[in-house]
Write a structure and sequence with these properties.
With 298 residues, the chain is mostly helical. The chain contains 15 helices and two strands.
Length: 298
């Protein structure tokens, strides 16, 4: 296990992910050049790469090869990038800023942005199908199915549908948690489990413990996101601050209040860390990432 500090590990892993994305995305200038340029714009040069970081950190639990982790990390990040491109469209959240620069449909155009999302989604599954990501073919099929479930109507897309239908409505906490378990949590869970599945087999108990961690970490990420939406500046966030409140969307802050939302985030952090206990020192990076997710900018 690497002895470097967390900041260095995170920076190195983010750069590894960036380099792998640059290599695996269609080359600039290749036909259709306009679409490929927009795909690279949507994926490269921004974001904290939280999902790739989780995949690489979980891979340390099972001694997963870095080459396998690069593929699953990039596949999940492409799904995430496609979701952001589509979420920013006028028919969804109608936003003009993402990762500190114009959103894809502003920089290019709406039809191109739609095709960017479509293309990134299919490329993610192409990468998972064409490249070795585990030593067991049967497990590779299960991993592809996991990413598909996490991305579709029973995962991320379904959560977005509930989100759109909830504007102007009051949700109770179980309803809000279900929405975010799908919209945000499903892909975070997939990134974590896929990273571990790239390596040696886990026991049933280990898999269940990692699944508990991933679900709590996904919810933690969203609670903190809601807090930052009303406490951080647009410059800090790289996207429009206060957007959820302006759109009258239900959030943990609107439901619980700011201080209670912060207290809930801390509870989720403790729950996530407790789930990692069976892994001992091998979970060092996941532990550090949990603290990073919880304490970013507030």
């Amino acid at each position: 296990m690497s002895k470097e500090n967390f900041t260095d590990w995170m920076g190195g892993t983010q750069q590894r992910s960036e380099n792998a994305l640059a290599r695996l995305l269609p080359a600039s200038g290749s036909i259709p050049a306009h679409l490929h340029e927009a795909m690279r714009y949507a994926c490269l040069g921004g974001g904290k790469r939280v999902r790739p970081l989780l995949a690489f950190a979980a891979g340390e639990l099972t001694n997963a090869p870095l080459a396998h982790l690069e593929i699953v990390a990039c596949a999940v990040e492409m799904i995430h990038a496609y979701s952001l491109v589509h979420d920013d469209l006028p028919c969804m959240d109608n936003d003009v800023l993402r990762r500190g620069r114009p959103t894809c449909h502003i920089e290019f155009d709406e039809p191109t942005a739609l095709l960017v999302g479509d293309s990134l989604q299919t490329l993610a599954f192409q990468l998972m199908a064409e490249n070795p990501i585990t030593e067991e073919p049967g497990r590779q099929l299960e991993m592809i199915a996991l990413l598909a479930r996490s991305s579709g109507s029973h995962g991320m897309a379904g959560g977005q549908a509930i989100d759109l239908a909830s504007v102007g409505k009051s949700l109770n906490q179980p309803e809000l948690e279900l929405m975010h378990a799908l919209k945000t949590g499903a892909l975070i869970r997939a990134a974590t489990l896929l990273g571990a599945l790239c390596g040696t087999a886990m026991s049933t108990e280990q898999h269940a413990a990692l699944d508990r961690f991933a679900k709590r970490a996904g919810l933690l990420f969203q609670v903190v996101d809601d807090i930052l939406d009303c406490t951080a500046s647009t410059a800090t966030l790289g996207k429009t601050a206060g957007k959820d409140e302006a759109a009258d969307k239900p959030t943990y802050v609107s439901l619980l209040g700011l201080q209670e939302a912060k207290a809930y985030a801390e509870t989720l952090r403790q729950d996530a860390l407790a789930a990692l206990t069976p892994f001992g020192e091998r979970a060092r990076r996941l532990t550090e990432l949990t603290d990073f997710i919880c304490h970013r900018h507030f």
